[in-house]
Design brief:
It contains 18 helices and 17 strands. By secondary structure, it is of the alpha/beta class. It folds into two domains: about 190 residues, Reverse transcriptase/Diguanylate cyclase domain (Alpha-Beta Plaits, 2-Layer Sandwich), CATH 3.30.70; about 190 residues, TIM Barrel (Alpha-Beta Barrel). The N and C termini lie far apart (about 120 Å).
Length: about 475
């Protein structure tokens, strides 16, 4: 067969679709679909490359682990569509903030390891700052991030403020592998949360110990739930004028079989952070209702018990069922149960809160605002919510007989409550001087060591028997011994 040496035979195939498919596969594998940021896998590869270059060039860099404070609450309350839009808006602000750092750090060059900002998943983002030599420079960028996320976000007609907690790990001081750096930045982020949120913390070696302790504590909390290690103590409430027993507050206690007593200030924050506070709260409701039933058989034992409701528990879809089913299962009247809710919880989502409170109120459950004066409540909100009681926070009671500001605040709260027809309980009453002031200004009830410390159920039962015995000998029924 003859060949023409001047001719070329070419086979052309259109691979456009194949290239598009390959690009789609690459994007799905390495980029977050929602925010279009690099994902954990791509960031991990980039971080490993950055470590190689930093080691070769003897340079430092920083990892900033950014977590949104209370994002789950927004997601659960307003829905996933609002949550998704919020994440996109946060990613946009972080990207703008990251781009503005180019003049102070070497970030985007492929030669230096690339990728500056990524979404690890959920509400977790991470930023890599290459070539940063000082903590001061990192602090300036972390502060800029906090400021960038400060203005309110608007999503589907809702407006809210979202704050970040940021943990910082430095190479090579805080780790020489990608896993170490991310883990230690994560530990620092949790310390930022525990320090009050909306701030940043640098990793330190002590944080690793605390992080391991936190993880261990989380596991122990799970065991405590399964093995019924928790216990309720009950602190009496007394009429401020007659000293009669008018109720009690259920307080959670944990006597660990090996470690001994673990204070609520230690385990409650971990329970809230992990969501374990919801099953704990459900157990508290059931146990308190069962105790109400048991004490109703005592003379003078038919008193209401107050239970604290955490933010996570209040936002739970099962809250109303949990409350009412606990009362039904224990065969008690719901009016024997009081729920204590903080001001911050009330104002998280006013419309949803109002619906839940009205439902509980119609069922007969008493409602109380706990730690009043420390949050954001106004007269208009108090008039709108079906609240029965205000509890003055102990921080105002402590020095009210010596601090003019605290005294003025307490007097104002009591006067306002009287105008609204609300009952008032003063917490943390420990001295007769405090009691005299509260009586003078019309406080209804007191709670504190002047009346009684919190008591386990068996000791509270002894108190009820003593009250019954004293009543048989005189007219002062249900009187608490000071």
């Amino acid at each position: 067969m003859a060949r023409d040496s001047n001719s070329v035979l070419a086979i052309v195939r259109d691979i456009t679709e194949r290239k598009k498919s390959e690009a789609r596969i690459f994007n799905l594998a390495y980029f977050d679909e929602l925010t279009e940021l690099p994902n954990r896998q791509l960031f991990g590869r980039s971080l490993e490359r950055t470590i190689e270059i930093a080691k070769r060039d003897d340079l430092k860099f920083a990892i900033l682990f950014v977590d949104l404070d209370r994002f789950k609450r927004i997601n659960d309350t307003l829905g996933h569509s609002v949550g998704d839009q919020l994440l996109k808006d946060v990613a946009s602000r972080l990207a703008m903030c990251a781009r503005s750092t180019d003049s102070v750090s070497r970030l985007d060059s492929g030669e230096r390891g690339g990728i500056q900002l990524a979404r690890l998943g959920g509400d977790e983002f991470v930023i890599k700052l290459y070539g940063i030599e000082s903590e001061k420079a990192v602090s300036a960028i972390a502060t800029r991030i906090i400021s960038a996320l400060g203005p309110p976000f608007s999503c589907e007609g809702h407006q809210f403020v979202v704050t970040p907690s940021i943990g910082v790990a430095m190479y090579p001081e805080d780790g020489v592998t990608a896993e170490e750096l991310l883990m230690n930045a994560d530990s620092a982020m949790y310390r930022a949360k525990f320090a009050g949120r909306n701030n940043f913390k640098f990793y330190s070696e002590t944080m690793r110990t605390k992080s391991l302790h936190r993880l261990d504590l989380e596991n122990e909390i799970r065991k405590a739930l399964d093995k019924q290690q928790f216990e309720l103590y009950y602190q009496p409430k007394a009429d401020a004028h007659t000293w009669s027993l008018v109720g009690a507050e259920a307080l959670l206690r944990w006597d660990h079989p090996e470690r001994g007593p673990i204070g609520p200030e230690e385990f409650i924050p971990v329970a809230e952070e992990t969501g374990l506070i919801v099953p704990i709260g459900q157990w508290v409701l059931r146990t308190a209702c069962e105790q109400i039933k048991a004490w109703s058989e005592f003379p003078f034992g038919n008193i209401p018990i107050a239970v604290n409701i955490s933010s996570h528990q209040f936002q739970s879809d099962s809250l109303i069922d949990d409350v009412l089913n606990s009362a039904v299962d224990a065969a008690i009247d719901p009016s024997s149960l009081e729920l204590e809710i903080t001001e911050g919880v009330l104002l998280q989502n006013v419309d949803n809160t109002l619906m839940a409170l009205n439902t509980l109120k119609r069922a007969g459950v008493a409602l109380s605002v706990d730690d009043f004066g420390t949050g954001y409540s106004s007269l208009s909100y108090l008039k709108r919510f079906p609240i029965d009681t205000l509890k003055i926070d102990r921080s105002f009671v402590k020095d009210l007989h010596t601090d003019l500001d605290d005294a003025a605040i307490c007097a104002a709260i009591l006067a306002m409550a009287q105008q609204l027809g609300l009952n008032v309980v003063a917490e943390g009453v420990e001295t007769k001087e405090q009691l005299a002031f509260l009586r003078l200004h019309g406080c209804n009830q007191i709670q504190g060591f002047l009346c009684s410390k919190p008591l386990p159920a068996d000791q509270f039962a002894v108190l009820l028997r003593e009250i019954a015995k004293d009543a048989a000998n005189g007219p002062d029924a249900k009187q608490v011994s000071a």
